[in-house]
Amino acid sequence: MPTAPISLTNDQKPRCVWPGADAFYLEYHDIEWGRPVTDDTRLFEKICLEGFQAGLSWITILRKRERFREVFYGFDIPRVAAMTDVDVDRLLADPGIIRHRGKILATINNAARALEIQAEFGSLAAYFWSFEPKSEARPQTISHADVLAMPHTEASRALSKDLRKRGFKFVGPTTCYAFMQAMGLVNDHIEGCFCRHEVEWERGQLRRPVK
């Protein structure tokens, strides 16, 4: 990750440094990353794709995301939960995704576990947002150094522990923290990034889902 705290691209907007100058990555940073999400399908997709990222870079997964969506039926939870060994063999032969048997099987397993959470909590959103850290547990401003120093947090460790107790796979604390960052459960756009105050406003307007 670059060491400079703020990146200025051709449009001269100050940003977090991690997207670099890649237009595809910049669009993801500006429009998606950190914006609060309460849609179950998007939350399920993200926790699965974060699992596929393990050992890889997120840009690798992002470039393959559309194909992942195609082969996993738009991450429709019941349809993924119903996938069979025939589907697994089909996916292992598809060069458009990450062909890792364990991660493919984990996605199907996690869909079944997600259905159980929906039955218990009413929605995945209500479950995941119950792990949002309290505002007093977070620094008021986030620097580049802060982000580098937080591969996982107390909240992400708690989420990981609970998910694993429920039978989820590929949901370690670092994976869970990346999920929380991306889905807006925390705002880790650094101080000075033009997105930080936009995201904070969206989080302030958000009606948190409850059980």
TrEMBL record:
Any Pfam family the entry gives: Adenine_glyco
Concerning InterPro entries, the annotation shows:
Adenine_glyco, DNA-3mA_glycosylase, DNA_glycosylase, Tag
Q: Which residues form the signal peptide?
A: none
> Which domain of life, per UniProt?
Bacteria
* Coiled-coil blocks: none
- What is the official name of this protein in its record? DNA-3-methyladenine glycosylase I
Q: Which organism is it from?
A: Devosia rhodophyticola
